[in-house]
Amino acid sequence: MAANSSAQIAPIISIAGLIKHFGRFAALRGVAAEFFAGKIYAILGDNGAGKTTLLRSLAGLAQPTRGTIKILGGTPRQVCAELGYMAHPTLLYEEMSGMENLRYFGKLYGITDEKRCEELIRAVKLEPTLTRPVGQYSQGMRQRMSLARALLNNPKVLLLDEPFSNVDMRSGREMVELLTRLRTEGKTIFVVTHQASLLDGTADEFIWMDSGQIVTRTRTLAEGITNE
Q: 144 near 98, Cβ under 8 Å?
């Protein structure tokens, strides 16, 4: 996988001096980084390392205490229509079916195309005709439906927090295959995960965080493990 040259290609995301405090606790401490379009970035680290806070900051859901984030030339809130966010909790309406969930969220984006909803459900290996409520889905099925929801607005930047949580190995691989196809379409994808092995050989870069900082960026999972 060839590296992008910042001298030739402008980054799609630039972060400078990013600090986020929750009371006296510093969840992010001076994060600075650039990221490029059409890449899959795996964000790794122990619990409390700042991974989710960084993802929420990119999504515009956590306002920085100090520092700046530029995505596609604007702030996260200015370009929110270009972002797709999947939280660790699925945040689906459990009394609705999968299709009903996508119809509802689609309306929030002004999307009324039934075929778009059906295509996304099939893309995550579920059936649009499944009528039982999401509350009766397995956790893995909920995760996949949450991913479908994050893709509704055809975002340029996809932000995924633990998408493989409680997903079996086969389903996890299928999700990775979908992310790989989305990368070929030019999407920039961030994946916070504790199951980094699923992205080994697929992610363009592994971003290792500790104590609110990016401490290592590696091309392979093995390099990062060696550097720990």
A: no
Look up the domain containing 60 and give its range: 13-227
Task: Supply the CATH number for residue 217's domain.
Answer: 3.40.50.300
Nearest alpha carbon to residue 182 among 163, 195, 197: 163
Provide DSSP, 1-65: -PPP-TTTS--SEEEEEEEEEETTEEEEEEEEEEE-TT-EEEEE-STTSSHHHHHHHHHTSS--S
Exposure string for 216-227, b = 16+ CB within 10 A, e = fewer: bebeebeebeee
pLDDT digits (tens, 9 = 90+) for 187-220: 999 999 999 999 999 999 999 999 999 999 999 9
pLDDT, tens digit (0-9, with 9 covering 90-100), for 30-51: 999 999 999 999 999 999 999 9
Separation between Cα atoms, residue 15 and residue 108, nearest integer Å: 29
What is the tens place of the pLDDT at every residue in 52-94?
999 999 999 999 999 999 999 999 999 999 999 999 998 999 9
Locate the DSSP E strands across the chain.
13-22, 25-35, 40-44, 66-71, 83-86, 157-161, 188-192, 205-210, 213-218
Interatomic CA distance for residues 83 and 95, integer angstroms = 26
Specify the pTM. 0.93
Q: Does 4 fall in a domain?
A: no
Count how many domains the chain has: 1
The answer to the question of residue 6 being in a domain is: no
26, 212 Cβ separation under 8 angstroms? yes
User: Which tokens in the block code for residue 222?
Assistant: 């093995």
